[in-house]
Input
Amino acid sequence: MDKFDKTNQEFEAAVAECRQLFEHKLHDYRASWRILRPQSLTDQLFIKAKRIRQLEVTGCSLVGEGIRPEFIGLVNYGIVGLIQLERGFADTVDITNDEAMLLYNKYATEALQLMKRKNHDYDEAWRGMRVSSYTDLILTKIERVKEMEDLALKGDSAKVSEGIDANYMDIINYSVFALIKLKTEN
Output
């Protein structure tokens, strides 16, 4: 087994952990996230990333939840973002749990395949990075998404950006890196 095979297994295990939580929340809440407009979803990603950064900086959690669950949330909301880009937002829950899981699996698979390709091309550079760098890069991606959304609201568009979907993919991938590092470093 080469290093990429081991890493691919770690990627798949991290995404499977996120998928399981998503499925459990779907059971409890259905696809209530379907009502989120793009800006609200971006703000939800922002809240989670800011909380991670605050915990990294202060080391203090008054609600007793750690960093790892927030990275899982970033993966899942990143996938929700991709679904919302494809489907648009709704005024009510308009898909079944089975349909939501099919969409989740579609985008989780796309993100996983991208992660594997990039990992090969970058020769596992992410392993040499600090988790706090992933957090900062995620916050940067969220700021970029906010700017693109603001441009769109003004009837303008980005000139050189890869697009909101590419930023969601990067948020997912950096979050998976963090999940792996947090698991292996503890």
In short: The helical segments are 3-29, 38-58, 67-87, 97-122, 131-153, 164-185. DSSP finds six helices and no strands in the chain.
